[in-house]
Amino acid sequence: MTGNSILQCLLFFGTVTLLGVPLGRYMARVYEGKAAIAGKVLGPIERVLYRLSGIDSKENMSWQRYAASLLVFNAIGFVIVYGLQRVQGHLPLNPAALGAVSPEVSFNTAISFATNTNWQAYGGESTMSYLTQMLALTVQNFLSAATGMAVLVALVRGFTQKSAAGLGSFWVDMVRSTIYVLLPLSFIVALVLVSQGVVQTFDAYVHVGETWIARGPAASQIAIKQLGTNGGGFFNVNSAHPFENPTPFANFVEVVAIILIPAALCFTFGDLIKQRRQGWALFAAMMLVLVPLTFATMAAEAAGNPALHGLGIDDSASATSTGGNMEGKEVRFGTANSAIWAATTTAASNGSVNSMHDSYTPLGGLVPLVLMQFGEIIFGGVGSGLYGLIIYAIIAVFIAGLMVGRTPEYLGKKIEAFEMKMASLVILLPAACVLVGTAIASAVPAGTTPVFNPGAHGFSEILYSFTSASNNNGSAFGGITVNGMFYAVAHGIAMLIGRYWVIVPVLAIAGSLSRKKEIPSTVGTLPTHTPLFVALLVGTILLVGALTFIPADALGPIVEQLTLAAEH
Amino acid sequence: MRMLRQSLVLVLLLTVLTGVVFPAAVTALASLAFRSNAQGSLVYEGGHVVGSSLIGQAFGGPAEFWSRPSATGPAPYNAAASSGSNLGPSNPALVTAVQERVAALHAADPGYNAPIPIDLVTASGSGLDPHISPAAALYQVHRVARETGLSEARVRSVVAEFTEGRTLGLLGEARVNVLLLNRALRALRE
User: Fold this and answer.
1) Given CB 3.0 to 4.6 Å as the disulfide criterion, which of A2, A113, A163, B71 pairs with B123?
2) pLDDT digits over A68-105, tens only?
3) Interface contact A190-B26, CB threshold 8 A
4) Sequence ranges of the domains in chain A
5) Burial of A518 (0-12, 13-18, 19+ CB in 10 A)
6) Between the CA of residue A283 and those of A6, A13, A152, A154, A369, what are the distances in Å?
7) Which of B26, B31, B55 sits opposite A187 (nearest CB)?
8) Which chain A residues are within 8 Å of B107, Cβ to Cβ?
9) Residues of A in contact with B91 (CB under 8 A)
């Protein structure tokens, strides 16, 4: 690691914090319906949407109705994305004359984009028409992100409301997330990206010599794929593609955009519950995990690949070369910006990449894997990351309660058997999906044949794929071929479980909490904004993650690291 | 039923807003403010498109600067199917590929045995990397000077001219655009 790479890393985390605080405060006003200036401009659009679709914005939904609206809304999105892919050959805005996408890949993609995973079993420029990219994929980038944010707001109401009957309106929370937060930010980011050279055109691919240069309306999709923790690239190689991420400044904007809203939501949370310190505590817990792991992957990639040493190459860092492990990385980003991105995109459940994770050193690749295995709660998806972390906070107060023999409480609400049952589901189901899916895939030929790299690294490809799908990340060790029937369907199921079997229990907790009375805090109450609680929370996350996944990780990246070190 | 109707109408309205109005508005503004960028930063020669300054091309002749290896199929630098190699660090195929690239560089410049900068023998993430590191360009100066008949100092000064530093001295990495460098080199020889 050079001084410059450390500086770039600190600049990144500093920028996220500086922008996150005001954005978080603004979002709190949006969800409270108090955003004055934005309300004047965007309020009329909001009201027209409600009027045309016959929505009563004052409706106070029970948690069951909130969940049902969400599921129906997402299901319709799924059907549209599936359908558009199947008939794109007959529709306009298809300059490369791409035909229908296969049923299994269409199924996988539709789930993938509806669940905010954006796992891609296809290469964008060789599979999806411009129309499909816009009407199916860009739209779901917005709506799946807004869905996650709505669930978070509902969970927060569970804490702020006392003896209340409902959680508010899913329609209102989702629409406000879209038009007050995601659309304006995406518009700005898209234009900044075009100023750096990201393409944005409806014109056809360009013929040059014997090849074609693929183009398209990319900037508008890239902006929201970064901001909404979606991660589905316009082109096959995602943000490694020079048309998707052309300059170091574009890269900086994109990597900040990955984590901006998840970070800001910590401060939104603090404002909504009227205790800013609680928001800072959760933010601190996330940073405590992410920053050291970012440096770990940066150091691993800067050290280079020992298998290549002694072949007459120079991989040391100097003023004229980034050095390190450059297989699968772009010169303009080098190892530092690739590693920062890899850690950030897997901590947040974004999953876009600016370098190929499959070619990372074993330890460099272990970090993204571990960050996903924590359950996408270290920033995580927009909304989903924070509601996931709040579930961990509930578990942490429960553990603390067991230690001292008091009924656990969090933010003035008693945590009882029902909440704990639901919290267990939230943590166990995605983890089970990862391990059972990996086990099945490793045991059947349909699972092992599509693997690309030999040995322990091949197992890592399988493990990474199920980890990514079950936690709705979407990045991959891309060597593995996932467009066949087995993986398209298995990952599809994993993504569904990882998304909705988390959302429904979280909404159930929200419903249960909002019906409860507030209990006044006493000297016996465990304060949840102190360094002690932050340490307890981080400890809980590390413990649950380690106990669940160390055996599986040991068979993949850890074995590979040991063999590589022994052989060279 | 009411919920289904509300969902359906809302999905359609939001599809128009985020899937039609938004990309169209960005496209309109982009083509006003940054027309060349939005079109793909195309490079023209005599009215014909010869490439994009952002998309690398497969340079590998003796008298030109070589690009990085590219893993796109069916041919390298296929800008209609971007791809990395996805070779794992412990994959013997990666070692073999690097050995072959080292051998090819040595064969093109016999007797010149400086260590080869890593980016020149490893495939980029996109398969379309337009850049090489300044070190990788300087490594090739010896061969390019010999093959073109230009002095090493002259070639080195062209490399220096096309070397971009970190943005604001801080962000990203120093790099040289191979397409632009080779065009400048060709212009110099003509």
Assistant:
1) B71
2) 999 999 999 999 999 999 999 999 999 999 999 999 99
3) yes
4) 24-274
5) middle
6) 21, 12, 15, 20, 21
7) B26
8) none
9) 453-454, 457
